[in-house]
Amino acid sequence: MALDLGSASRKPDGMPHDHHDHDHPHSHLPPDPALRVKALETILTRKGLIDPAALDEIIDIYQNRIGPKNGAQVVARAWADPGFMHALTEDATAVIAEMGFYGRQGEHITAVANTDDTHNMVVCTLCSCYPWPLLGIPPGWYKSDAYRARAVREPRKVLADFGVSLPEDTAVRVWDSTAEMRYLVIPQRPAGTEGMSEEDLAALVTRDSMIGTGLPREPGQ
Questions:
Q1: Is 128 annotated in the active site?
Q2: Could you give phi then psi for residue 83, rounded to 5 degrees?
Q3: Of 13, 27, 140, 219, which residue is most buried, by most CB within 10 angstroms?
Q4: 129 is catalytic
Q5: List 128, 165, 177, 209, catalytic entry
Q6: pLDDT digits over 49-94, tens only?
Q7: Do 113 and 189 share a structural domain?
């Protein structure tokens, strides 16, 4: 869902997190997301509900073996094959599944392509919905309250914080990732990459460029 930047920055009244309910179970957990996760992991491990070794294996798969590599393959093929790009933007879920990239957190995906006129950026305003089968585990900043709020309210300033400076006449479109739909940004192909193989093109694709908070590497960078 593309956000209406004219109204999305207004926080609705009566949101649950506006209340200081100290009897709520979450009030007994640390406020920092990383500490909350660690506290929950410790509790569940002590109760025998999770196996730390199995959890480490899952994390290793998504963080190191998948990482952003799968998404980079998708982007590289889109750069190299206009027909594939068209099919990808029409039905990304089906096209990506045909490449063997599917599974939990990747059931429904929309691909949005950057152009000279429009730069796309993805955020999850409610939690941290993210296309795991393509990009691996979301980075810490993607899950932070600051990014989730500022990406909607002041996307150009957020991009500047990431070192991305866009022409004034390039519109920034922010997409709100949800449990029902996750987004993959197809960055613009860097100049000087004509004749490069898909493998070499994939090496230019960064994780952040597929979220929209970064740009691809330049050839030779």
A1: yes
A2: -65, -40
A3: 219
A4: yes
A5: 128
A6: 778 777 666 666 666 666 689 999 999 999 999 999 999 999 999 9
A7: yes
Written as six digits, the tokens of 6 are 């004219």
Does residue 12 fall inside a structural domain?
no
Domain with 124 in it: what CATH number?
3.90.330.10
Q: Decide if 68 contacts 135 (C-beta within 8 A).
A: yes
Residue from 7, 124, 165, 209 carrying the catalytic annotation: 124
The residue type of 1 is: M
Same domain? For 158 and 91 the reply is yes
Query: Exactly one of 9, 127, 144, 165 is catalytic; which is it?
Result: 127
Catalytic residue among 129, 144, 177, 209: 129
Same domain, 50 and 133: no
Query: CA torsion 18→23→25→29, rounded to 10°?
Result: 70
CB atoms within 10 A of CB 164: 18
